[in-house]
Structure formats: structure tokens, C-alpha cells
Design brief:
The chain is of the alpha+beta class and 143 residues long. It is built from five helices and seven strands. A hairpin with a 4-residue loop joins strand 3 and strand 4.
């Protein structure tokens, strides 16, 4: 974990044998240091699973009692990846996000009783599917 101008910390993933950079992410503390904002996640497309490794590291090492949420703005093509690692779309979008075709997403640290509550709600999977269908329709209209 390294410092990087404009971000609070920088995480890089390197190949242990060749020491080549495989991926990195820039992360900032926000909301009085109670949440994180993921500025950039970048991986080599030739290394399968690098993004998931970075996201797992982020969730396992930074989500503490004081930091409960990770926020990001996704491009449409990456939404399904972020959903696969636990992020959900946020409904509200700013004008700037709309102009830049960015979609706000958030990952929230599961609470102690969330395992039972998640199964009881039953509607989360349906909401994600509906959001993906809506996103696809909007992407088609833009093209």
C-alpha cells in the first residue's frame, strides 16, 4: 500500500515471479473518513481474476468498524463486474455523472445479522436484474 497524490492510498498488485504490475487501485477517504471512494481500478486484461483479487483485498483490509462503505463510479461495461463482487447501483445520478456516462455504485459492509436478513428480503436479486436491463436499454439508445 503506497501513497499517491490526490488519493489517500494506492494499492498495486504485482506478479511475484516477474515483479510486473498486474493491476492497481486508487482509494480516498470521504464522509469524514467513514467511507471510501474508489477512484480507479485498472488491471491487465491478460491476467484473469486480477480485479477480483484487488476488490477482495480492499473489502477484507479496509472495511472496519469505522469504515463501512466503498463508493465508486462505474462505466456501463464494468457494472456487471462490480455487481459480481457485491456492489449495487445507486439510483441518484448527478448531471456530471450523466454527461460522463458514469453510474454510482456502493458496497456496504455486511452487518452481523445480514446473512439472515439478506435471504428474507428476496427482492435484491430482482432489483439488480431490473437495473441491468434498464442500463442495457439506455446504452442501446446512446449508441
Amino acid at each position: 500500500v503506497l501513497q499517491f497524490p490526490g488519493s489517500d492510498f494506492y494499492v498495486e498488485l504485482t506478479d511475484s515471479e516477474s515483479n510486473r504490475l498486474i493491476g492497481f487501485m486508487l482509494v480516498s477517504l470521504v464522509n469524514r473518513k467513514s467511507d471510501l471512494f474508489l477512484n480507479v481500478v485498472c488491471t491487465r486484461n491478460t491476467v484473469k481474476g486480477a480485479g477480483k483479487v484487488l476488490m477482495t483485498f480492499l473489502k477484507n483490509t479496509t472495511l472496519t468498524d469505522s469504515i463501512k462503505n466503498v463508493h465508486l463510479e462505474s462505466v456501463p461495461t464494468a457494472i456487471s463486474f462490480y455487481e459480481s463482487v457485491g456492489f449495487v447501483l445507486v439510483r441518484a445520478r448527478s448531471g456530471e455523472q450523466m454527461r460522463n456516462n458514469l453510474w454510482p455504485m456502493v458496497y456496504s459492509k455486511p452487518s452481523a445479522g445480514a446473512a439472515g436478513a439478506a435471504g428474507a428480503s428476496g427482492g435484491t436479486r430482482h432489483k439488480r436484474r431490473k437495473a441491468r436491463r434498464t442500463q442495457r436499454k439506455k446504452t442501446r439508445k446512446i449508441r
